[in-house]
């Protein structure tokens, strides 16, 4: 059985372009892969642990190889539990709107919490090693404007959304990355509708192409 994990980072729900395109991918994926299981991690309804004093102390105790206190152990268990679905999934589907040229703070919080040594990466004298190797990631990026290289504005220079997400994915071991971009969603209903339709079609094709 293949497992798909959808990490949803927009709070707009039915109005969200990234969520709409991700759901098109999910429906096509279910249709093409009858044995697939689909789990959604909605970052707006998932308790995200604060990376506060206890978490930082646990982090550095682990780096130093010193025993954890009970409080630190409980904190680290919560971090591992949050990251567990990433390890269990075969395909990671991210729906990511552009916020202030980057990503929503809930997604950044999630990434900051789970991106820890022996949780999503290893570290030794040879350097870093991602622990999510062998997985496929599909990322749906939604933008209100045109951030492509063909844009007549310098908007591409302000795109810290896609570079950040894909650098992080590669850091944790995911090199198999496919993307769907839906943009110009602020250009009025006609342009928005066409952009969503085309992106949904691209997402459906990706879902049917492989497990």
Q: Can you put this structure into words, describing what you see?
A:
It is built from six helices and seven strands, in the order E-H-E-H-H-E-H-E-E-E-H-E-H. With 211 residues, it is α/β, with parallel strands linked by helices. The protein has a single domain (3-209), classed as 3-Layer(aba) Sandwich (Rossmann fold). Strands 2-1-3-6-7 form a five-stranded parallel sheet, with helices on both faces. Strands 4-5 form a two-stranded antiparallel sheet. Helix 1 (17-32) runs parallel beside helix 6 (189-209) and helix 2 (53-64) packs across helix 3. The radius of gyration is 18 Å and the shape is globular. The termini are close together. The model has no long low-confidence stretch (mean pLDDT 93).
Give descriptors for this structure.
five-stranded parallel β-sheet; single chain; two-stranded antiparallel sheet; 211 residues
Describe the SSE topology:
Layout: E1 3-8, H1 17-32, E2 37-42, H2 53-64, H3 70-88, E3 91-97, H4 105-114, E4 121-124, E5 127-130, E6 136-142, H5 162-171, E7 176-182, H6 189-209
Parallel strand pairs: 1-2, 1-3, 3-6, 6-7
Antiparallel strand pairs: 4-5
β-strand percent reads: 15-25%
Summed up, the helix count is 6
Strand order of the biggest β-sheet = 2-1-3-6-7
Distance between the termini: 10 Å
Number of domains: 1
CATH architecture: 3-Layer(aba) Sandwich
CATH superfamily: Flavodoxin domain
Question: Could you say which structural class the secondary elements and strand pairing correspond to?
Answer: alpha/beta
Shape: globular
What is the CATH topology descriptor? Answer: Rossmann fold
Number of strands: 7
Q: Overall pLDDT, averaged? A: 93
- CATH class membership: Alpha Beta
The biggest beta sheet, please? 5 strands, parallel
Can you write the helix and strand succession as a string? EHEHHEHEEEHEH
Low-confidence segments, given as residue ranges, are none
Helix content percent band: 40-55%
Rg: 18 Å
């Amino acid at each position: 059985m293949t497992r798909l994990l959808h990490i949803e980072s927009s709070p707009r729900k039915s109005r969200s372009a990234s969520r709409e395109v991700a759901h098109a991918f999910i429906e096509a994926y279910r249709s093409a892969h009858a044995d697939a299981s689909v789990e959604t991690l909605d970052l707006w309804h998932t308790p995200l642990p604060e990376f506060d004093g206890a978490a930082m102390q646990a982090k550095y105790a682990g780096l130093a190889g010193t025993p954890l206190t009970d409080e630190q152990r409980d904190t680290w268990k919560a971090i591992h539990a949050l990251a567990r679905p990433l390890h269990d999934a075969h395909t990671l589907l991210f729906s990511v709107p552009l916020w202030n040229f980057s990503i929503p703070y809930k997604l950044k919080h999630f990434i900051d919490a789970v991106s820890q040594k022996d949780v999503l990466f290893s570290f030794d004298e040879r350097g870093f090693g991602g622990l999510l190797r062998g997985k496929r990631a599909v990322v749906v990026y939604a933008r209100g404007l045109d951030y492509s290289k063909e844009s007549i504005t310098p908007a591409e220079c302000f795109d810290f959304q896609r570079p950040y997400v894909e650098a992080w994915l590669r850091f944790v071991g995911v090199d198999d990355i496919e993307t769907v971009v839906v943009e110009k969603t602020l250009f009025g209903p006609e342009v928005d509708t066409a952009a969503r339709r085309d992106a949904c079609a691209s997402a459906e094709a990706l879902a049917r192409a492989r497990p």
